[in-house]
# Entry
Amino acid sequence: MLEPALYIVATPIGNLADITRRATEVLEAADIVAAEDTRHTGQLLGSLGISAKLLAYHEHSPEAAAQRLVEAIGAGQAVALVSDAGTPTISDPGYRLVRSVQDAGHAVVPIPGACAAIAALSGSGLPSDRFNFAGFLPSRRAARRQRIATIAGADATQILYEAPHRLREALEDLVEGFGADREAVLARELTKRFETLRRDTLSGLLRWVEEDDNQSRGELVLLLAPAPERPAALPDETLLALLEDLADLVPGRKAAKLLARHSQYSSRELYDVLLSRRDRATSGKEVP
# Structure
């Protein structure tokens, strides 16, 4: 018997053997299993020999659906929340149900297990003492570049989810925002047959994906190394001179983007320096 509560149950991200004994016991004993996709979860439960009452709860569910689950807990029932794969509430709307249950004064019990972000980090070879889970990047390019700019200088490993059809564009924008030489990892199809973990520079990953369409398929996690310590506040004079020469031939943003591919600086950093030098030159001040 389970105590009345909301149980946050992690399920496998690919390999069914990753289900925990405790997760299985909770799913067996729960009065209701709230699922992102009842058909998908029904198949999982069937493989485990579990028969359960399934109710849909996903990002398009009305508030009434959450209220129904809250009322069920208040009536003495145990509700298990699952997502299609991995740990519920991680980059999905389950957190709203958690808040509703907490606000009603009921218990919330996490049942830990598989999580693609943590699995990828553990096998990435990147620093794991500090990391930031940034979820999915925006689908629109302008918004994506803006988000990238906010995390490029962080001194912690960044963990991103990405859709297969946007992987190439995302890598192009990451090269521009983080710099071509930033170390990164592409983790694909974790725990499944074609599991891949590749560590390389961002430009190296981009070339790899461009040369092999298979690397843009399946479930994807991108991890970016922390920003390197700068040896100086600004690029050296040779790089600055090259930047200004390029900017005489092409627009400043494009010049910064081209040079970023061959330096440790991001295109935003180089463009900001270019603007600063132009402003100082225009104002009549000496440019160092």
